[in-house]
Amino acid sequence: MNRGSSAKRAANVAATGDAITLLGQYVRASHDTAPAPAAAPRKAAVPAAAPIGRASLGVDVEELDNDPSEILGAASQNNEPGIDVPAALFRAYDVRGIVGEGLDEAFAKVLGRAVGSLIIEQDGTRVAVACDTRLSSPALTDALIAGIVAAGCDVLDIGQAPTPLLYFALQTHPAQGGVMVTGSHNPPDYNGFKIVIGDRVLDGERLQALRQRIVDGAFRSGKGRVERVRLDDDYIDAVTREVQLTRPLRIVIDGGNGAAGQLALATFEALGCEVLPLFCEPDGNFPNHHPDPNQPDNLQSLMLEVQAQQADLGIAFDGDGDRLGVVDENGAIVWPDQVLMLLAADVLGRHPGVDILYDVKSSRHLASFILSHGGRPIMWQSGHSRMRAKMLETGALLGGEFSGHLFIKERWYGFDDATYAAVRIVEILALESRRASEMFGELPSSPATPEYQLMLEEGRSHEIMRALDAHKVFDNARLVELDGLRVEFANGWGLIRPSNTIPSLTFRFEADDEDSLDQI
User: Fold this and answer.
1) Structural domain that includes position 318
2) What distance in Å separates the CA atoms of residue 209 and residue 201, rounded to the nearest whole number?
3) Residues labelled catalytic
4) Cβ neighbours of residue 240 under 8 Å, at least 6 residues apart?
5) Does residue 326 lie in a domain region?
6) Please, where are the H alpha helices in 66-192?
7) More confident of the two residues 36 and 380
8) Is residue 46 part of a domain?
């Protein structure tokens, strides 16, 4: 399968970025664009960073537990002087920014106070909290928990864990909300907060309402309790109850020094696989490569290791374990839209007629493939919170994004869980006599690019998109404006959309052949 990684095509995309920037300059005075951050140089794995110790958290459980009258039920309304927090931190899907530039421990504490107050006002009692391996995460988590309990809300503290383990806790433990402290796949100086209230990830207007609560000082007061738990064994037990492999496989797991590596290793070992770890030690410096499996450069070590170890498959995770990368036994990248096809065929074999979701960055082959297997394809907006909300709205059993978020409701909970998605891929492969390259090679494909990014100053991406919208003229093409601008021609398509996680424009292209791809 050709995914178009030539220098010529990269130059074409760079030229496209220049043209779009000039368009923005025509409409409004522009600023110099910032270069894309360089990937961290690869080197040998370093010793594991210490997990968050219980003593490192600034909340004294014994003190909080002394007086039952001071727990959640005693919380009271308390309007305090408002705090002006940077609007730029409240993005489309989560709260995110550069540590020290408005995002610090003081901000984390007031955010926790706001979340705890919101939970109480909705008759909740407890918030689950976890964090990734970033160097800034322990202190931010400490402050966040202090804020939540100051609102009179209890905390279920999971410690250092991947985001899906937090989601798992919300499904299996009595908690009405959750906060994951994570910078996801962003550079090491970033961090952020993914916030869940009930069964919804806060995004858009609901995040803005949370910011307004902070600005207004609309907080509750009280003293909550903190309960600390480890859920790794519970998670592994739940997975192994659902999945039993017909034969063991040899798998390389690249944890990217993020939060998912250790749990993924233990899960696949429990399934009977021979697991070969690569960069699975937690280290917030990310010394080996950037934890973003959607970028080919970050998969190079995994590709080589899979071939060197003669493994059946390679699996890579992002920094907080909700996004997946896959490499076949030959070291070739299997892109998430093809992984989604494989999972769709499996799910539709048991549940014909159900909805399958995919995002605007995914292959045009997905719709016809899903239809041919008896499903109903639905294209939707990119973004984990938007996709998860659409899963709930439609009752879909499966959804996926080209970024590597995969949502499996059949036999699981429907949240984006890269470890569980990898387990389901391995389950399918174990049933086959064919190798991974043969299995994926039978799926429809055509020349396509990875996802390209053009880094810009904060706010410029949306400005340029508005300029493009005002001047767009595409003859003999169908325009899909569900999320950004996807232009579909007879022989392929191209997409430009503003990223909602970092200040950039993203591009992707697919066509019937290489010449058409270069033209588009």
Assistant:
1) 232-441
2) 14
3) 96, 184, 405
4) 267, 270, 271
5) yes
6) 105-121, 137-150, 163-172
7) 380
8) no
Residue 207 tokens, joined = 């995040």
Answer yes or no: are the C-beta atoms of 108 and 150 closer than 8 Å.
no
Q: 6: which 2 tokens?
A: 């030539």
Give strand pairing partners of 398. 356, 408
Indicate the pLDDT class of residue 77, thresholds 50, 70 and 90: low
Same domain, 305 and 165: no
Q: What CATH number is given to the structural domain containing 473?
A: 3.30.310.50
Q: Which one-letter DSSP state was computed for residue 412?
A: S
Q: Could you tell me the two tokens for 112?
A: 């926790």
3-state secondary structure 160-173: ECCHHHHHHHHHHC
Say which residue the tokens 């798992």 belong to.
168
Dihedral sign computed on CA atoms, order 224, 225, 228, 233:
negative
Instruction: Say if CB 65 and CB 225 are below 8 A apart.
Output: yes
Chosen domain end from 382, 411, 441: 441
pLDDT classification of 260: cutoffs 50, 70, 90: very high
Half-sphere exposure of 356 (CA within 13 A, CB side): 29
What amino acid occupies position 134?
A: R
DSSP, collapsed to helix, strand or coil, labels residue 206 as helix
Per-residue pLDDT band for 452 (boundaries 50, 70, 90) equals very high
Whole-structure pTM value: 0.86
Q: Is 51 domain-assigned?
A: no
pLDDT of 211? 97
Domain boundary among 170, 202, 228: 228
Instruction: Assess whether pLDDT exceeds 60 at residue 28.
Output: no
Residue 40 belongs to some domain of the structure: no
Q: Give the count of alpha carbons within 13 A of 67, CB side only.
A: 7
CA atoms within 13 A on the CB side of 292: 21
User: Strands (DSSP E) along 424-472, which ranges?
Assistant: 452-455
